[in-house]
């Protein structure tokens, strides 16, 4: 049996996500968010259906929006990033004007109103100038701690730096904030999603310079 280090090497280098990667990448993101990210439990309290529901929602979203109009990168389907370009910067990017369409909220059942309010809160924290948004970064849980997410993010940010782009993202825990701060992100706003869960907005100027 290959060790985790050997598995990481076998995954290869950072490359664009392809349609053929979707089943594995979507399941990987779902596993990470379902069991290792507080948002997953908040958005879908029912453990019995959480991972499968997330995998279906993620695969549909990536297929219908991100692969067509966003920017998606992966390391062998085991670590993946999904980026939203500035809305209006290219044809089709208007699909990202709202995080979810109104027709999607009922899929969250009793959490629909909370999801709608949470999306509105996050939108209010975003910068008022063009930015690239890191919507998702996730790694297979069994490969946590092997540097995949950091390698992927470093690659992506080099592209954004070369283009002079402002980057933004939202996250939830001190540990996650510390990870992004290593790459030049800074907390610029926050708000409550619930009594137990907060959301933090982080921005990064090109080359990691101080946020204005």
Task: Give an overview in words.
This protein is α+β, with helices and mostly antiparallel strands. Helices cover 42% and strands 19% of the residues. It has helices spanning 4-10, 22-36, 38-43, 47-69, 112-125, 148-163, 174-181, and strands at 15-16, 71-75, 79-84, 132-139, 167-171, 186-192, 198-204. Strands 1-2-3-4-5-7-6 form a 7-stranded mixed sheet, sandwiched between helices. The longest helix is centred in the N-terminal third of the chain and has 23 residues, at 47-69. It is globular, with a radius of gyration of 17 Å. The mean pLDDT is 95.
Short description:
The chain is α+β, with helices and mostly antiparallel strands. It is 42% helix and 19% strand. It has a single domain, classed as Aminopeptidase (3-Layer(aba) Sandwich).
What are the segments in which pLDDT stays under 50 over at least 5 consecutive residues? Answer: none
Mean pLDDT: 95
- Overall strand count: 7
- How many domains comprise the coordinates? 1
Strand content is 15-25%
């Amino acid at each position: 049996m290959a060790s985790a280090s050997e598995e990481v090497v076998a995954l290869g280098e950072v490359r664009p996500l392809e349609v053929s990667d979707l089943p594995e990448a979507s399941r990987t993101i779902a596993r990470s968010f379902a069991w290792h990210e507080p948002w997953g439990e908040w958005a879908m309290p029912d453990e019995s259906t959480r991972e499968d529901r997330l995998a279906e929602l993620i695969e549909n979203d990536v297929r219908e929006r991100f692969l067509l109009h966003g920017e998606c990168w992966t390391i062998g389907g085991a670590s993946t990033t999904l980026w939203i370009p500035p809305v209006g910067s290219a044809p089709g990017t208007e699909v990202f004007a709202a995080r979810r369409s109104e027709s999607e909220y009922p899929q969250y059942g009793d959490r629909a109103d909370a999801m709608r309010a949470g999306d509105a809160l996050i939108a209010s924290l975003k910068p008022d100038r063009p930015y690239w948004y890191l919507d998702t970064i996730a790694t297979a849980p069994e490969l946590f701690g092997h540097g995949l997410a950091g390698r992927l993010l470093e690659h992506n940010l080099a592209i954004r730096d070369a283009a002079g782009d402002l980057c933004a993202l939202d996250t939830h825990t001190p540990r996650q904030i510390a990870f992004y701060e290593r790459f030049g992100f800074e907390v610029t706003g926050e708000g409550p999603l619930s009594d137990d869960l907060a959301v933090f907005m982080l921005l990064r100027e090109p080359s990691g310079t101080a946020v204005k």
